[in-house]
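Please, structure for the following, as tokens.
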Amino acid sequence: MYNDFMKVSIIIPIYNSENYLDKCIGSAVSQTYDDIEIILVNDGSTDGSGNICNAYASKDPRIRLINQKNAGVSSARNRGLDEASGDLITFIDGDDHVESDYVEYLVSLMEKDHSDIVCCQYEVMNKNGSSSRLISGTEECLKEFLTSNEISVSVCCKLYRKHLFDGIRMPEGKRFEDNYVLYRLIARAGSVTIGYQKKYNYIPNPSGFINEPYSKTQMDIVDAAMEQREFIVKNYPALTGLANSRVIYAANRCLLKMADSRVYDADSVQRLKPLYKEYGKDFLKGPSGRSAKRFSRIARISPKLAMRFYRLLHK
């Protein structure tokens, strides 16, 4: 059914995931698609994750275990990319798991449409169906990425042709590392297929970064959005307004995180003020909801006032 050369490398970065790891690796080894390698990158785990990895690697020759000192998820993913021998790449986070036909489904869509990137849906998403949709042309793919949630910003739940990663790696030492990379991969792709079946199961981690209180590292999402904007303005100027809107989305996220944490980071707020002035109008034209647009309108006047208004509504 599938071409012989379509070997898939499944890269799993792992750090202290012992409570989820058996289900994660078990879902990878149970794939219905035969031609796979599974690269486990143990990023200096201090719990029982290493023992679980060793147990799986000792009994399944498709598994390659790499142990490294803790350097972060970007470093672990990059190490997996460097070691991958497959023609196609997919990522699974160590606390998530996938359906048994996850790889088979993505490969089948890639072969059907001859696309360069294929997406499936998270289990937490509402949409689920048997159809798929092909988006052709780099600018159209980027437009879809910037305007809808059908191409999530995560590098997970996707299948990539390996050559897309030539010269591209995750930025180490940054939060929101996916935001720095995915738009560049899409810009290299001639086409993207969106599959509407839910094949990737995202497990929210209550102690993960997404739930941490505000710190200055949250501003990495703004830096990523600004890098994305610079790239798009230079290469796809027709999409400038959409890129501007993404900058304000990132700025809103930082202000809301401050408000939820009851923190006022004056230096970061000063960085955000001119962004609202310059790009806020484009956000108001975009697809975001009414409450997000209302918040950004107030933030254009005063970020501190917007935070106070948000806290009053969420007492």
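The mean pLDDT is 93. Residues 88 and 162 are 5 Å apart (CA to CA).
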